[in-house]
Write a structure and sequence with these properties.
single chain; 405 residues; alpha/beta; Nucleotidyltransferase, domain 5
């Protein structure tokens, strides 16, 4: 069995510096696209001698290739563009929901492929039984991919809840009923591959930050809600080479207001009035209604008073949650994901207009509120980002044997 995706094993300082340089080059090519050696040196602030060795190492592994000459007005020989090749390592990402699991094979360039979705009931199972089912499903997927000549080098499980620092144990996942549950261990045993556990909101936030290409000094608060309400604060430091980012379950904050469901407290946790089940219950919408947020808005626009009251209350509660997050985390930009990304422009504008009632005015100045640009794909891309950040920080990842598997 291969080594788990824990923190990098200690090697010589020189080797770890080489690993960091290789990883920086790969991440730069991944996030910024093909570029010349000169441009790569400029972006990474490294000497030509250093980058020449790094590029030679990556090309010998077969992970980086050279493209055709690019047009240029500069004197001298035309520059050739370096790019990540399709034969570079890939990881298997699994997005776990209460009754469904979605897997994808994701390349080093973060391009997802082999996407498959299947029913897998998590709610109602014991934690150990749920993890065993996830592990068995991923083992079948990894075996299928390997049999068709598209193997993976590691696995990332994207799920709600807080994790330990090593990204292996679920400390607390309210909706799943998980507490201090080892998730990575059983998956590694079933796959024979290193694995890690990634919080779903953090994964989406990392993918969104890289997609937007935000500059230093501009932090992104990614907030998403469906069964819970989570937030992740990403900046240039936390997005760099797998550094930790601040994330929390906003749903536990006692700022929610309920005026529509009898027998439920009027003052409650925000998750109680923002989760999908609450909206469906007020609307009387079953599973055949794909989006309770869209249904709420459509009915409200047709004059349905209960739907209109739910919309107004939801705007108030979401604004309260975001306002509290702004007071605590002071982001420069907020991206809304999950089911509330399906809300209309008018819905988001109403939320933004009510945030000053819940956040300090000076902290709200110039804070932009927008929906996610990636949608559901953000969780897959973010899980792959974290997996590669861990995988590529290990010196063994750059040995030829892994590059040719």
């Amino acid at each position: 069995m291969r080594r788990a995706l824990r923190a990098p094993a200690k090697t010589t300082p020189v080797e770890m510096l080489r690993v960091r340089h290789r990883m920086q080059a790969l991440v730069c090519l991944r996030d910024c696209g093909p570029m010349s050696r000169v441009e790569l040196c400029r972006r990474l602030g490294q000497s030509t001698t250093t980058m020449t060795k790094v590029v030679a190492d990556l090309m010998s592994l077969g992970w980086v290739g050279e493209g055709k000459s690019r047009p240029t007005n500069e004197p001298g020989r035309p520059a050739t563009a370096l790019h990540i090749r399709e034969v570079a390592p890939a990881v298997l990402v699994a997005v776990v929901e209460p009754r469904r699991i979605t897997t994808a094979r994701v390349g080093l360039d973060l391009s997802p492929g082999e996407r498959r979705s299947a029913r897998l009931d998590i709610v109602g199972r014991t934690g150990a039984d749920a993890v065993a089912a996830i592990a068995a499903h991923l083992a079948r997927e990894a075996h299928r991919l390997a049999a068709t000549g598209r193997p993976v080098a590691a696995a990332a499980i994207v799920a709600p809840g807080t994790t330990d620092a090593q990204l292996r144990t679920s400390r607390y996942a309210l909706f799943f009923g998980w507490r201090n549950l080892d998730v990575a261990g059983p998956v590694e045993a079933a796959l024979g591959l290193p694995a890690l556990l990634v919080n779903n909101t953090r994964a989406m936030g990392l993918a969104e930050f890289r997609h937007l290409g935000l500059p230093p000094g501009e932090s992104l608060l990614f907030v998403q809600a469906r069964h819970g309400v989570g937030a992740a604060l990403i900046d240039i430091g936390s997005a760099e080479l797998g550094a930790p980012s601040a994330f929390s379950e906003l749903g536990h904050m006692p700022v929610g207001r309920n005026r529509l469901v009898e027998g439920m407290p009027a003052h409650t946790a925000v998750v109680d009035v923002l989760r999908e089940s609450y909206l469906r219950g007020v609307l009387g919408a079953g599973e055949e209604t794909a989006s309770p947020v869209r249904a709420m808005e459509e009915r409200a626009s047709r004059g349905d008073r209960r739907a209109a009251a739910l919309r107004a209350q939801t705007v108030e509660n979401l604004a309260a949650a975001l306002g509290a997050a702004v007071n605590l985390l002071m982001p420069a930009r907020i991206a809304i994901g999950g089911m509330y990304a399906e809300g209309s422009d008018a819905f988001l504008a109403d939320v933004h207009s009510q945030m000053p009632f819940h956040a300090q005015a000076e902290l709200l100045e110039n804070v932009e509120l927008a929906r996610t640009a990636l949608g559901p794909d953000g969780a897959i891309a973010g899980g792959a980002i974290v997996a590669f950040d861990r995988l590529l920080r290990q010196a063994s990842a750059y040995r030829r044997r892994m590059g040719t598997r």
